[in-house]
Specification:
single chain; mainly alpha; two-stranded antiparallel sheet
């Protein structure tokens, strides 16, 4: 059973990687062949699709899962999260204009330590040594891929503002990490449809504003025909599939595991480039792929665990530190009571529910 779960996890991660590869290829054709540099418009189309499918689903729901009920409770949280997600997409796509492909691939991996740290402090996830070894192998695999790019001289796009481009990638990776950890929390504790519906609602609104301000002139310069229209439709479909499918994978695994699996997306793009753009082949590409897969297998081979809310331990210590006169004596023949906490997030002012065996 454990082996089957591992294989399913690997397969799901590679489906996400293939979707990202398709997104990258359509973006490359739009930018290079049709000179359509419209990253905000492309993401805007995705948020519109999310709105049409998932926000309308929330609107017709009844009860606490209804759109209005969700907005009353936590509208401002989803508003902030949608802005973070929009700008993460924009910063990374924008960085390609200033820095090299190799730099983007390498620096984009910064999302992994961001997710690890945020999961540790906010989701209270604890890792074992094998998880850090697996993460290190995945980053080593990316290093091999970047090394192959350097050896083959495929570093076009270096401009005078390379440092600015590198900073854009780091900023985008940081925002991606925040978005992914929030997404993991929401899909595991609330609802996948709620997350996607709120992203569609606020994402389409704020990306529409950004589109009107920043890219309205660029859209007018696009030479519209059926080919470019098909590319936009393809990009939107792949992006919509990625957003719809990622919460399913994340609920089964974690934000960290998903981001490790996504490292192979760059390799799929390179393999496609061998045939579509006549890239030179290097054996380091295959080595990179197997190192990353090995790292993902190692990471997924052992489960992480979530520590209990620190307030629970504080409550337990307070009980245990009471004077002995306040506690009933325990007979030597009677086992010490076992304390089982039935919840880790009680409302403020409530006592922690305790069940004594």
């Amino acid at each position: 059973q454990r082996e089957m779960d591992l294989l399913v996890t690997l397969a799901l991660g590679q489906v996400l990687s293939l979707l990202i590869c398709a997104i990258g290829l359509t973006s490359k054709y739009l930018a290079n062949d049709f000179h359509a540099n419209t990253p905000v418009f492309q993401t805007f189309l995705n948020y519109i699709l999310l709105f049409l499918v998932y926000t309308t689903t929330l609107a017709v729901r009844q009860g606490e899962g209804n759109l209005l009920a969700i907005l009353k409770q936590r509208w401002w949280k989803y508003m902030i999260l949608s802005v973070i997600d929009i700008e993460a997409n924009y910063l990374v796509l924008r960085a390609y204009q200033y820095t090299t492909l190799s730099s983007v691939q390498l620096l984009d991996c910064f999302v992994i330590p961001v997710v690890l740290l945020l999961s540790w402090f906010f989701l209270l996830v604890r890792y074992k040594a094998v998880h850090f070894v697996g993460t290190g192998l995945c980053l080593l695999g990316i290093g091999c891929m970047v090394g192959a790019d350097v050896l083959l001289g495929r570093q076009q796009g270096l401009g005078e503002q390379k440092l600015f481009g590198d900073l854009l990638v780091l900023g985008g990776a940081t925002l991606y990490g925040i978005s992914n950890v929030c997404e993991e929390f929401i899909v595991k504790n609330l609802s996948r449809v709620e997350f996607l519906g709120m992203m569609g609602l606020f994402g389409s609104f704020f990306s529409g504003i950004q589109l009107a301000i920043m890219e309205h002139k660029e859209l007018l310069r696009v030479s519209w025909d059926w080919k470019i229209g098909l590319l936009y439709v393809g990009f939107s479909a792949f992006m919509f599939g990625l957003y719809s499918f990622m919460p399913v994978v994340m609920k089964r695994t974690s934000a960290t595991s998903v981001n490790l699996s996504l490292l192979t997306a760059d390799l799929y793009s390179l393999f496609c480039g061998l045939f579509l753009f006549h890239y030179k082949f290097s054996g380091l590409y295959l080595l990179s792929f197997f190192i990353i897969i090995l790292g993902v297998v190692l990471y997924s081979s052992s489960s992480t665990y979530v520590v209990q809310d620190p307030r629970v331990y504080k409550q337990f210590r307070n009980i245990g530190s009471q004077p002995s006169s306040e506690l009933p004596p325990i007979s030597p023949r009677v086992l010490e009571p076992a304390v089982i906490y039935t919840t880790l997030s009680p409302e403020q002012g409530d006592e922690f529910p305790v069940q004594v065996a």
